[in-house]
Specification:
Layout (H helix, E strand, L loop, with lengths): L17 H6 L4 H31 L14 H37 L7 H20 L18 H4 L8 H5 L2 H29 L12 H33 L10 E2 L2 E2 L8 H35 L6 H14 L15 H28 L9 H20 L5 H7 L3 H31 L5 H27 L22 H29 L57
Antiparallel strand pairs: 1-2
Length: 584
Amino acid sequence: MSHSHDSHDSHDHHELGFWQKYVFSQDHKVIGIQYAITALLFLFFGFSLMMLMRWQLAYPDKALPFTKFLITSDLYNQFGAMHGTIMVFLGVVPLAVGGFGNWLMPLQIGAPDMAFPKLNMSSYWAYFLGGVVMLAGFFIPSGHAQSGWTSYPPLSDVMALSPGATIHEKLWTGQSIWLVGMIFLITSSLLGSVNTIVTIFQLRAKGMTMMRLPFFVWAQLVTGFLLLLAFPPLEAAGLLQLMDRLLGTSFFLPTGLVISGKAWPVSGGGSALLWQHLFWFLAHPEVYVLILPAMGIVAEIIANNTRKPLWGYRSMVFASIFLGFMSFVVWAHHMFMTGMGSKISSFFQTTTMIISIPSVIILSALFISLWGASIRFNTPMLFALAFLPMFGIGGLTGLPLGLSSADIQLHDTMYVIGHFHYVVAPGTIFGLFAGIYFWYPKITGRMMCEKLGKIHFWGSFVCMNFIFTPMFIQGLAGVSRRLADGGQTYLHAQPVLHWNVVMSVAAWLMGIFQLFFILNFFGSMIRGTKVTSDNPWDSTTLEWATPTPPGHGNFTTPPEVFRGPYEYSVPGHDKDFLPQNQPS
């Protein structure tokens, strides 16, 4: 049942100072913008690490152009570990959930703010501190974490440690700093997920039943439950690994561990596989934490630019709920190589095939929504349309990895990198770009430049495919994903190594095309065309019923909802859209 907004009416009516208004703000819109800007900066940094790695893969052991900077194997491993960590935990998830979720979700349900504004502020600052801690690891003399973004023991338990080191020396290592940073980031996500769930259930506007929620809100609700239920096991695992490193415990250190021909003197009895179970119990739901918000954004944009209701709205809602549930029972398909036995392997193969069904339902509904439409091919729509086949490629290439017989051949090859990146890069990140272009005028009161936006889209679209498609070719040829020289010393890799240069050139070109986005994003704040309406896209959902940009409390009067979210081209009306808050 939706609640009234009276309890929030007195919230911060007095004029706030600069620090309270823009830095330690409790307004969900300011916090959403803080999340978004911070996450975009981390995405740019993580992308920069990737471009450095691509130089090493294309031209092994050669200094960067115009410098004497050489990327060693240790430095390559650091960049690899931190690229994955930054892009997932500091970039995509904070932008999708912290940025879009914070700014947009309360507006779409007609709420004046999040349910717990102070908790919301705390969530952002825990995320910010986690990011600062992660960056601090680059300045440690021994280097940052080198155990991959998955941080598998026993390597991660002993990396850069000597048995006789003091606790201070053990803490001041890249891997220990990584674990501390992850604890901050996970705490941030837990605080945010509680806030999201309570807000959606308790602060909906009058008439906003659950089946009148925009699909984006449903995506955020399922994502909130995924974060709430999946992140605690990894936080516990991170604390246990930190204890292994600092206090001499052996939760993940097996008995009889030998390193460089010498027995590791710390007591054993732990299980390295326990970490894998705890990590992947988070990390597979985490994949849908990345995907679902992007699906929600794409659904909103497709409905708006086809001028049609979404086809199969209810089936999409139930599919997203089922997707969230099934994401908790597929984690061990990442662990077929551990020898778990044929029966349990068969179980996880079966659940992996089943979880593809709800994804296909959602994707099919979005494709069918295009049928017979007069599509507006603006920049947000181009990114939303590109999301569909790109995510489809990512999903289809994941099916062989869900079968143990195929995974044994493909595990830890470049094929896995290509599959995951098709889901997250041209998939999820394209969805997030679509959302930025679409809601930018509501946030700033100005439109982004269409010409620059389309240059950004077409350049990114072409380059993305030249980066990731060759990875399938290399992976099928057996090239490992963890070779700092790109496979130069592997005889069987020689016929496909020329693709390293192609992929690297495409990555650097894609970096150039992102400059068009940066110019457009900041330049449009000053020189962008001012919107002449609070609803420049002629949309139906509640966020467009607010002033531009929305002020304190969001709505001048609490809205009332009379219909579902996608009433486009309704017969008998003079306009081709019928807003949710407009009486019949």
